[in-house]
Amino acid sequence: MRTSRLRTVHPVLWAGWAALAAGAVLCVVGWYGVSGERYAERQLPYLASCTIPGAALIIAGAVLLARGRESIAARRVEELYGLLTEEAPAGPQETGRAGLAPLAVSGDLLMVPGGTLWHRADCPLVAGKAAAVPVDSKLVASGELDPCPICEPAEETD
């Protein structure tokens, strides 16, 4: 069972968004200052003090956001890996198929038109499907249909 957890935004992400916002503001201020000056020598201070640091902040913010999301994704992958590899409690109903009876035990055999397998009628793959039809013995004899690996109908017919 999955527990609910409070999703928080990490400080690295906050720093990334703040750097992006500050960089955008500096670029706008630099552009506004440059656009008001006619001569290039008067535009240079705006480029040096606003636009270049603004662009650097935008780049830094993008790197921080990418790095922060990467660490979150790595942590989620580790959590999922832990869930996949944890041992299930051993009980009387082991999920292994070795030595167990097949899932289906019905003697009626069905197939789905256009399919490649033949099944027992109570096989989970065909149970309740209106398209399932009785098996054509000619298809089974010719080898065009293979027995279902889940319900193992070959044992019933041998």
User: Structural class given helices, strands, pairing?
Assistant: alpha+beta
Rg, rounded, reads: 33 Å
What order do the helices and strands follow?
A: HHEEEHEH
Low-pLDDT runs of 5+ residues are 1-6
- Based on DSSP secondary structure assignment, what is the total number of beta strands? 4
Morphology call: elongated
Describe the structure.
Residues 1-6 have low confidence and may be disordered. Helix 1 (11-35) runs antiparallel to helix 2 (40-85). With 158 residues, the chain is an alpha+beta fold. The chain has a four-stranded mixed β-sheet, with no helix packed on it. It has four helices and four strands; from the N terminus they run H-H-E-E-E-H-E-H. Strand 1 (109-111) and strand 2 form a beta hairpin. It is elongated. The protein starts with 10 loop residues before the first helix and ends with a helix.
Task: Compose a concise summary of this entry.
The protein has 158 residues and is α+β, with helices and mostly antiparallel strands. The protein has 4 helices and 4 strands.
